[in-house]
Amino acid sequence: MSQATLTDVSLDPILERLTQLAQLEPDWDSYGALAVSPVAFVKACQLLIHIKYSLSPLVGDLILPYDAAPIANGSLQLEWRSPYGNLEVEIKPDMSFSYLLIKGEGNERKFEEKNEVSLSEVLNVVSQLLIP
Asked: Of 35, 50, 59, 100, which has the maximum CB count within 10 A?
């Protein structure tokens, strides 16, 4: 893969998706879910900007999450997929992060789950996933 510049990768589509999720009303799932927390929304946007500036010159548009989803407790989840594994990062209303990293397949499949991690830890695990 050729190296990308910071302007080569646009966050606009994922930021638009996060904005749509942030506008969900309470009970969006019809089971009493909370609306997406404004704090979780801002922290998710900040995380994506940090990832763009630290990794896009190395991996280009691989920095873009595969999906973004609301969680019933007001959190947001960002998911990345790569040939090296899958990563789900939860951005919580209390400004903390959690993640689940899945690597390998079948009997070789390994899971790493951590709660209450820092932004730098999340950046590190995203980097591990995208840059083997």
From this structure: 59
Retrieve residue 3's tokens.
Answer: 């190296």
Beta bridge partners of 97: 91, 117
Instruction: Give the chain as a DSSP string.
Output: -PPPPGGGS--HHHHHHHHHHHTPPTTTTSS-PPPPPHHHHHHHHHHHHHHHHHHHHHHGGGGS-SEEEE-TTS-EEEEEEETTEEEEEEE-TTS-EEEEEEES-GGG-EEEEEEEE-HHHHHHHHHHHH--
Environment class of residue 14 by beta-carbon count within 10 Å: exposed (0-12), middle (13-18) or buried (19+)?
buried
Distance CA 130, CA 58 (A): 9
Q: What is the dihedral of CA 79, 110, 120, 20, to 10 degrees?
A: 10
| 33, 27 Cβ separation under 8 angstroms | yes
Report the percentage of the chain scoring pLDDT > 70.
Answer: 95
